[in-house]
Amino acid sequence: MQRRGALFGMPGGSGSRKMAAGDIGELLVPHMPTIRVPRSGDRVYKNECAFSYDSPNSEGGLYVCMNTFLAFGREHVERHFRKTGQSVYMHLKRHVREKVRGASGGALPKRRNSKIFLDLDTDDDLNSDDYEYEDEAKLVIFPDHYEIALPNIEELPALVTIACDAVLSSKSPYRKQDPDTWENELPVSKYANNLTQLDNGVRIPPSGWKCARCDLRENLWLNLTDGFVLCGKWFFDSSGGNGHALEHYRDTGYPLAVKLGTITPDGADVYSFQEEEPVLDPHLAKHLAHFGIDMLHMHGTENGLRDNDMKPRVSEWEVIQESGTKLKPMYGPGYTGLKNLGNSCYLSSVMQAIFSIPEFQRAYVGNLPRIFDYSPLDPTQDFNTQMTKLGHGLLSGQYSKPPVKSELIEQVMKEEHKPQQNGISPRMFKAFVSKSHPEFSSNRQQDAQEFFLHLVNLVERNRIGSENPSDVFRFLVEERIQCCQTRKVRYTERVDYLMQLPVAMEAATNKDELIAYELTRREAEANRRPLPELVRAKIPFSACLQAFSEPDNVDDFWSSALQAKSAGVKTSRFASFPEYLVVQIKKFTFGLDWVPKKFDVSIDMPDLLDINHLRARGLQPGEEELPDISPPIVIPDDSKDRLMNQLIDPSDIDESSVMQLAEMGFPLEACRKAVYFTGNMGAEVAFNWIIVHMEEPDFAEPLTMPGYGGAASAGASVFGATGLDNQPPEEIVAIITSMGFQRNQAIQALRATNHNLERALDWIFSHPEFEEDSDFVIEMENNANANIISEAKPEGPRVKDGSGMYELFAFISHMGTSTMSGHYVCHIKKEGRWVIYNDHKVCASERPPKDLGYMYFYRRIPS
């Protein structure tokens, strides 16, 4: 400890009071109960303020609470003290000084006090040959700002010394985001070495996947034992599907699954149901090859050359990043970059575009004092706080200041004039928004479009009162489905947040050039000569818009008019136009060999966009609607048995699942009910039950079962089906509707069978012709117990309808062959000129490549 003490500098600070040695122990006595030693699992923040991007490098340093281990800049530490009453903080400060050169020109750079913070990053923008670092730590006691120099072994109580040493030697809470350690954080599955794979002839196509048990076509997982493709639903953000992959595991015991769409030569997202966590599969290439997937060539090209061997792709990188042109750096409010954490450019590009929208600026940065003042005790785990922090960091200009004149002169004298831009590091934000998401929490590249929708989902779930900035993206889509045989139609509406435009390759205007280029390219590859200059397909935007509006064939269409499967076509129109229209160009697809392909095309995206002609018109004169009849649902017998097994004795509740949920902060009784009413199916399923029921007034009330064990009907007695006027318990209704049946159908079946779950299922199977009875609905709504079994009809999604005239103000471009690799860059039009945001570098754009974008952001033009 004496050796360690030599590493600390003496405390400074003109506004603080230093203590005499004899008073230190007496001063700390009242605060001893609040000083903790970090335990395993505690996150110790030494690098970044919870409310800002202040760090020990900042002018005011960083204050670490010795009880919560949260860190605060000088501007925010008083707020934490007032809110919590915690008085003892460790103040961390890094001093950067210019080296004093000797006659010989100076020695190698020497960094003093390197062990005091361990994982505190150096400032990459300072030349280490010219500067050295000196780190300083001290305890500060609020509200009087008494300072105690560290170390002070003779005067400090032993507990305080141990706590200080533990804080200073703690590891970064973001280790899983560090490029060199992420992969090592995932355990190797114990099932990987001896995984059984069935020789059943299954071969997985490169596209067109669909869940084997439902119609979902996203969040699909390939079971590595039998090749079944099924939907997932174990993410805590409630994204995914119907949980059929997990259900399949419970039926078969096949433990490992890989997420389709994440497969690259470097790996894929693999989940172990038995181990209940993401894992590594060292034999993944072999396991995928069993089903016809060549993992090692997923990023290859048809001739076996890799991305960086091909001149055409290099050209794409140069054009999008505007290489070869001298770009002028931009500084000040709204011109702050985001440091790349290792393939985090997808997040940076989306967030730059999001915070260029006034509604998001007002919702978060405009409400900064209120959001910060009313933030929870741990603001690092609050979405609105972290959104506000990021928005303020990007918009305030506090972290985007031009170099002072003296520094510029010095750089010119040294012929090193390379304007530096620090930017801010979104580590805390990324850690929170990607929490429990196996894709975004990894260090691999992701799809910017998927992250945009993930962010919108988080904004929706964490709205501030009635204010929801994501309303600006929401619009209604009218889908018209027509039975080709009977010509009858059905109109439905759904909510969406972006418009997906297909690439109309057949409409290329330079087909002759493309054919000539392709012949020359193949000849060059065959003879191993340099490739010719790239010729991109030039696609008219009008052709892509036309392709969007044309009818699509409906797979597995069931015609209610024919009571059988038939051919059907679907067209989509806008039932409302959003305030801000996000357009995604569908550039990515898979070849027959499972190699991802990107349409390297140039599309003449318009600055002014008019889509008023795509306004929905509804049912037209002369059109006849399809009968409102649902297709027959066939439920396997084992599924019925599994439902009945969900009715468990309260004494058999899985307490480990209860405690997992309780540790997330939910009330204990609510956790017990969640595990009970989901039949001990695990914490993930119970979590979804909590999300659905957490707004109910009796959410945290103790679990009660009136008449348990004494009624003739087991299902009814367990769920307390003794309600007024023969109304079935909501929990039994939820179980039946979770199988895909209509709510009114479930209620009517339960009422007809005295609330017996098994008999109600048999009743449904024997009444496939069920139609919604209006008298029944009226009776249900007027029932005395309607507050329990019926909810008021929702108002529907909030949309900001208006004109379909838009102007382009931002676009995100992708470089590379796949969304799972490459790089993203964002261009935004600000103050009348285009600006390029390339990670931490923000510059005035000279040639914005509007024809090569991946996502485009349009704002409505007021009519």
From TrEMBL:
The keyword Nuclease does not apply. Keywords: Autophagy, Cytoplasm, Hydrolase, Isopeptide bond, Metal-binding, Phosphoprotein, Protease, Repeat, Thiol protease, Ubl conjugation, Ubl conjugation pathway, Zinc, Zinc-finger. GO terms for biological process: autophagy; cell population proliferation; maintenance of unfolded protein; positive regulation of ERAD pathway; protein K29-linked deubiquitination; protein K6-linked deubiquitination; protein K63-linked deubiquitination; protein stabilization. Residues 336-861 form the USP domain. The active site is at 345 (nucleophile), 823 (proton acceptor). Its main location: cytoplasm. It catalyses: Thiol-dependent hydrolysis of ester, thioester, amide, peptide and isopeptide bonds formed by the C-terminal Gly of ubiquitin (a 76-residue protein attached to proteins as an intracellular targeting signal). Gene3D superfamilies: Cysteine proteinases, DNA helicase RuvA subunit, C-terminal domain, Zinc/RING finger domain, C3HC4 (zinc finger). It is found in: Cytoplasm. InterPro entries: Papain-like_cys_pep_sf (IPR038765), Peptidase_C19_UCH (IPR001394), Ub_carboxyl-term_hydrolase (IPR050185), UBA (IPR015940), UBA-like_sf (IPR009060), Ubiquitinyl_hydrolase (IPR016652), UBP13_Znf-UBP_var (IPR041432), USP (IPR028889). Residues 652-693, 727-767 form the UBA domain. Belongs to the peptidase C19 family. Deubiquitinating enzyme that removes conjugated ubiquitin from specific proteins to regulate different cellular processes. This is Ubiquitin carboxyl-terminal hydrolase. It comes from Propithecus coquereli (Coquerel's sifaka). The lineage of its organism: Eukaryota, Metazoa, Chordata, Craniata, Vertebrata. The gene is USP13.
